[in-house]
Amino acid sequence: MRARVATGAIDVICSLHLVRELCLVSDSTSPSRVVALGRGLAGRCPSCGGRGIFAGLNDLVEACPTCRFSFVREEGYWVGAMIVIMALVLIFFGIWTVGGILVTWPDVPWTPLLVGGIVLNLVVPLALYGWSKTIWVGLDLAFNPARAEEFRLDDG
Question: Which of 17, 37, 111, 119 is deepest in the core (most CB within 10 A)?
Answer without folding.
Answer: 37
